[in-house]
Amino acid sequence: MARVTVEDCIDKVENRFELVLLSGHRARQISQGAAITVDRDNDKNPVVALREIADQTLSPGDLKEDLIHSLQKHVEVDEPEADEPAVIEQDEAASPIAEAAPSEDEPVSFDRMSEEELLAGIEGLVPPEKSDDF
User: Fold this and answer.
1) What is the pTM (predicted TM-score) of this model?
2) Fewer CB within 10 Å, N- or C-terminus of the chain?
3) How many CB atoms lie within 10 A of CB 63?
4) pLDDT value at position 122?
5) Is 2 helix (H, G, I), strand (E, B) or coil?
6) How many CB atoms lie within 10 A of CB 119?
């Protein structure tokens, strides 16, 4: 059988670049063992793929969807969110965090340091060493 040309396929797939992508994808499918829909006639896989597109034995739309699916690396799936993890009951006396943490009844206070204590703390800070990075 005569070789297939781009002009044989361009009326089925109008964009030449898309034609190259689709025929290349189909040729890879054939090399991985997919069944061909035309006679091979001692042709290589890319020629067989172009002949399948030219003879319309395969739908270009289906080939395009399959190509897109093969190129996707991450498919988002809507999964229901897991319930909140169960809180493990611990003995409050055994946990050092439980002693420092305020109870739920006691309001949280962020201003536990007086102004004098804050100034004394700031004055006691050591400035960072100078380096050539800055």
Assistant:
1) 0.52
2) C
3) 21
4) 83
5) coil
6) 11
